[in-house]
Amino acid sequence: MGHSLETTKMHCPNCGELIELLIDCSIESQEYIEDCQVCCRPININVTLDQQEEPQVTLTSQDE
């Protein structure tokens, strides 16, 4: 098993700014809501691990 926590940078679907997310790679599939560090609007975060146990992260706004 790889690292349990991994940092990734992605663009907020609300404001477009680059934000840093801490991903828990010990969970195979997860979905949660986190507020953007820049615009403070909620972001739906969906994480699944691929076959190499690399996180595949999808961000969507609450409006989508």
How would you characterize the overall build of this protein?
The chain is mostly beta strands and about 60 residues long. It is about 0% helix and about 55% strand. It contains no helices and 5 strands. The chain has a 3-stranded antiparallel β-sheet with strand order 3-4-5, with no helix packed on it.
Write a brief caption for the model:
The chain is mainly β. Helices cover 0% and strands 56% of the residues.
Q: Please provide the ordered H/E string of secondary-structure elements.
A: EEEEE
**Which overall shape is indicated by the principal axes computed on the Cα atoms?**
globular
Termini Cα gap: 33 Å
Mean pLDDT, nearest integer? 93
The secondary-structure class comes to: mainly beta
The level of helicity is under 10%
The proportion of residues in beta strands is over 45%
Radius of gyration over all CA atoms, rounded = 12 Å
Ranges where pLDDT stays below 50 over 5 or more residues in a row are: none
Could you tell me the number of beta strands? 5
The profile of the biggest β sheet is: 3 strands, antiparallel
Query: If helices are DSSP runs of H or I spanning 4 or more residues, what is the number of helices?
Result: 0
Strand order of the largest sheet: 3-4-5
Integer tally of domains: 1
